[in-house]
């Protein structure tokens, strides 16, 4: 039951749902997520850690960058099912649509230079 509760708690925050929906489209680093969501970097990092602990996201280091992506495989069957369902949910939500439309303009080089 712990795995189920962990996944449900991770998905109980609107910002974490937005992160999941953005990661459905492309891998993103913390700075890109921070810029898109308008949240502080430590807040985004905490959200990512909770999503990671639930088996919903993974990451890969690429030099100085850490790229976050949806988990390809998870030890939690609940995480896999919820990721599958979320692919079909909320695509018409106004906030999600706006975030997805902003994804192409997110440029980590420009963000970190500012």
TrEMBL record:
One of its GO terms (molecular function) is DNA binding. Residues 1-90 form the HTH arsR-type domain. SMART domains: HTH_ARSR. Keywords: DNA-binding, Transcription, Transcription regulation. InterPro entries: ArsR-like_HTH, HTH_ArsR_DNA-bd_dom, HTH_MetalResp_TranReg, WH-like_DNA-bd_sf, WH_DNA-bd_sf. PROSITE patterns: HTH_ARSR_2 (PS50987). Coiled coil: none annotated. Pfam families: HTH_5. Transmembrane segments: none annotated. PANTHER family: ARSENICAL RESISTANCE OPERON REPRESSOR, TRANSCRIPTIONAL REGULATOR, ARSR FAMILY. This is Transcriptional regulator, ArsR family. It comes from Desulforhopalus singaporensis. The lineage of its organism: Bacteria, Pseudomonadati, Thermodesulfobacteriota, Desulfobulbia, Desulfobulbales.
């Amino acid at each position: 039951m712990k795995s189920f509760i962990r996944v449900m708690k991770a998905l109980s925050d609107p910002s974490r749902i937005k992160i999941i929906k953005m990661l459905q489209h492309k891998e993103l680093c913390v700075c890109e997520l921070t810029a898109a969501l308008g949240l502080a970097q430590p807040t985004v990092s905490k959200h990512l850690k909770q999503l990671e602990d639930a088996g919903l996201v993974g990451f890969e280091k690429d030099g100085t960058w850490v790229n976050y992506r949806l988990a390809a495989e998870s030890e939690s069957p609940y995480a896999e099912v919820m990721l599958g369902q979320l692919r079909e949910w909320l695509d018409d939500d106004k906030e999600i649509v706006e975030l997805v439309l902003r994804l192409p303009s997110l440029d980590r080089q420009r963000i970190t230079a500012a």
